[in-house]
């Protein structure tokens, strides 16, 4: 980057005292400017985009490439570089290749299809609660509930045997850990891709009513592309919802009045989920892009070859979008806020394909836990909780609860 002065902050910035807030350095930067000079861990300069309008502008502009192989693409760790560039999935491609591959699985995540899955998701949630109750208290709401539920759902949709969950959950966490070395990331990526390739080969001879079987049957997909699609859906399909559901429940448990209001009126749950998605925004490390042309953003000139990181977390707390006269401070959690225009799922052509599924799962999880476990509470002091600050997807390492 030739136009920017010495970077004002180094990424990723450390967290502050509140585990629900973005790092204070990002919040401070967003108050100063919608776009700020920053430095990556290896010293390379990049732009940090923190404003709501500016984040949406970057994510909607085809001049900002999502392809991690584009010169200048920003990486926060060697492991992240390995995950993003080694046989990339369609979220790390630009159109038209991105659109070609995305269309192959879009229909499986349409709202109408997901609505038809609600009874099955409800059954999985209830059965998981039953197992947790049978196991006894205290329980870990992460390991005993939040992780199994989306894993069971995505396994059912993909056609992945749930008995293999220890393997893919462990490998997923390795790949999403921002401290993972490039060598270990390569090993984990190879192991999970090999598992999915073998499963796809099995599906070719023993097809079922699942996404992987339908992908294998296509003549316009090769084996590598099939495994990559399966990889993306499996990893993102369980890890994000698991982290979001656990930390969302913690946010509700911290304020019994909020939980009581939702329990008394379940019709409030969908809106509350949108506000929780906005306020928590678990993609804390942002979304990377690389400029392929000179572009004006937020009054600054981003040159071709410059890396850009869009901070969804600060965008979702931008007072110009979520504040204003009569509105609650966007730094506060307000379950009655109209938060539907948040960017927790990204924006533009690369926004999260699975957001209808995530919304359905979160709505069912919140409503069912509050209804079936009205006495749900933390089993340890809140200050003892540990957070996955090193993970690309922010969350809790464990959430001990009793009821």
CATH topology: Cytochrome p450
Work out the count of structural domains: 1
Coarse structural class: alpha+beta
Order of helices and strands: EHEEHEHHHEHHHHHHHHEEEEHHHEE
Primary descriptors:
single chain, 403 residues, Cytochrome p450, six-stranded mixed sheet, 9% strand
What does this structure look like?
A hairpin with a 2-residue loop joins strand 7 and strand 8. The chain has 403 residues and is α+β, with helices and mostly antiparallel strands. The relative contact order is 0.18. Helix content is 49%, strand content 9%. It is globular. The longest helix has 31 residues.
Question: Outline of this structure?
Answer:
The chain is of the alpha+beta class and 403 residues long.
Strand and helix layout:
Blueprint: E1 9-10, H1 24-32, E2 35-39, E3 45-49, H2 52-60, E4 64-65, H3 78-85, H4 97-106, H5 111-135, E5 139-140, H6 142-146, H7 148-158, H8 165-176, H9 182-205, H10 211-216, H11 223-253, H12 256-264, H13 269-280, E6 287-291, E7 295-297, E8 300-302, E9 307-310, H14 312-315, H15 319-322, H16 355-372, E10 377-378, E11 400-402
Parallel strand pairs: 1-2, 3-9
Antiparallel strand pairs: 2-3, 4-6, 5-11, 6-9, 7-8, 10-11
Helix pairs in contact: 3-9, 5-7, 5-16, 7-11, 8-9, 8-11, 9-11, 11-13, 11-16, 13-16
